Amino acid sequence: MSDEMKNFFGKNIHVYTRAQALEDGVLVDVSKTALEAGFKVPVALTRAVWDRFVAWTDEDTDNQTIQDEAGRLWDILSMLMFAIQRDRSEADQLIYQLAVVPRDGKSRSAKRIKLKSSIGGGDKGELVLTIMLSTED
Fold first, then answer.
1. Which site in 37, 46, 75, 115 is 20 to 30 Å from 86, CA atoms measured?
2. 118: which DSSP letter?
3. Smallest Cα–Cα separation from 55: which of 40, 39, 67, 41?
4. Helix extents (H) in the chain
5. Residues 68, 56: contact at Cβ < 8 Å?
6. Rounded to an integer, what distance in angstroms lies between the CA atom of residue 66 and that of residue 94?
């Protein structure tokens, strides 16, 4: 950004980094599993995606159906990888669908959901990918 542009916009009032979001738990780092699924960049989920579509306890299994967090996370990542391979566009965002058993205390069968992936620059300009609800920014 040119000095003229910096002067036009002024100083940043507040900057919230990806590292801070990971530390605060706003984002959940899933890079290790993502690497196993074929991703070559760090991957994080928003807390909303984790809580609604990955988190699963023994109580959830007792009340609903047999699931586990590892399998639920794998579904999210592998379906995104499939969607990326199928899409092949240069877009920095992709909305994709998959079927997930909602964590609602009663559902036993999967429902179709939409998630959004966004690839962009991390805190140091490196490529990072974030998976979020289709309604999140």
1. 46
2. E
3. 67
4. 3-9, 18-24, 31-36, 47-49, 58-63, 69-87
5. yes
6. 30
Sequence-ordered list of residues with C-beta below 8 angstroms from that of 115, at least 6 positions apart, any chain? 49, 53, 76, 80, 95, 96, 97, 98, 131, 132, 133, 134
> pLDDT tens digits, residue range 62-105?
999 999 999 999 999 999 999 999 987 888 999 999 999 999 99
Of 63, 65, 51, the closest CA to residue 110 belongs to 65
In the chain, the amino acid numbered 95 is: I
Torsion-angle region of residue 51: left (phi > 0), alpha (psi -120 to 50) or beta? alpha
Cβ partners under 8 Å of residue 88, min gap 6 = none
**Parallel, antiparallel or unpaired: strands 43-46 and 27-29:** antiparallel
